[in-house]
Design a protein that fits this description.
Blueprint lengths: L1 E4 L9 E5 L9 E8 L8 E11 L6 E9 L5 E8 L8 E8 L6 E9 L6 E12 L5 E5 L17 E6 L2 E6 L5 E6 L5 E2 L1
Antiparallel strand pairs: 1-2, 2-9, 3-8, 4-7, 4-9, 5-6, 5-8, 9-10, 10-11, 11-12, 12-13, 13-14
């Protein structure tokens, strides 16, 4: 079962409480799904982070935080999974870095419980989903604009992917994959 709880929180006043349900002993699998409002850009690095706390008793049981990449036919391309190992008395940070797959049109975040009993309780809080740079810092990613033209044409507008991070804006030519421009914004804007 899943519910919002005031019992404990990493920050703020609430967390997600996940617990096994003894009424469903013949179907011991439960999941919670949330689609992420981010358009995947193939090859871009993404990171899901969260904080976990709780107790999972010994046995063939598991709790996972996963990101599902889905294509236009709503078929799974891949899962990036974090197997949760909560601490009873402390919040533990969990992190998973992955790249967006070619053909992915959406991301879905899953919390998956398998074989948990009523005595097994997991709390999740402060779940974040970010595009990141090579240093692991969050960036804002702007998908390239559709030009309406195919192929290389004289005078064509460069379709570029913009990556923003603290002090730097980079534009990548989506046709060639090469750096189109690099703008340093600190201390004052300089375009290279």
């Amino acid at each position: 079962t899943f519910q919002v709880s005031e019992e404990t929180a990493h920050s703020g006043g609430f967390s997600l409480r996940c617990q096994g349900d003894p009424k469903h002993q013949y179907n011991p699998f439960a999941h919670l799904v949330q689609t992420v409002d981010i358009e995947p850009i193939p090859g871009t690095r993404y990171q899901i982070t969260g904080w976990v706390r709780g107790v999972i008793r010994r046995g063939k049981k598991s709790a996972r935080l996963s990101v599902r990449q889905v294509n236009a036919k709503d078929t799974t391309i891949s899962y990036a999974e974090i197997w949760l190992q909560p601490g009873a008395d402390e919040w533990r940070e969990v992190i998973r870095v992955f790249r967006a797959a070619e053909g992915a049109v959406k991301f879905q975040v899953y919390v998956i419980l398998s074989n948990l009993t009523a005595e097994d309780v997991v709390f999740l809080d402060d779940i974040r989903f970010d595009a990141i740079d090579a240093l692991g810092k969050p960036v804002s990613v702007v998908p390239p604009a559709f030009s309406g033209r195919a192929g290389k044409m004289p005078g064509r507008r460069i379709a570029a992917l913009e990556l923003h991070t603290e002090g730097v804006t980079a534009r990548i030519d989506t046709t060639t994959g090469l750096l189109a421009s690099l703008t340093l914004t600190v201390p004052s804007p300089i375009q290279l």
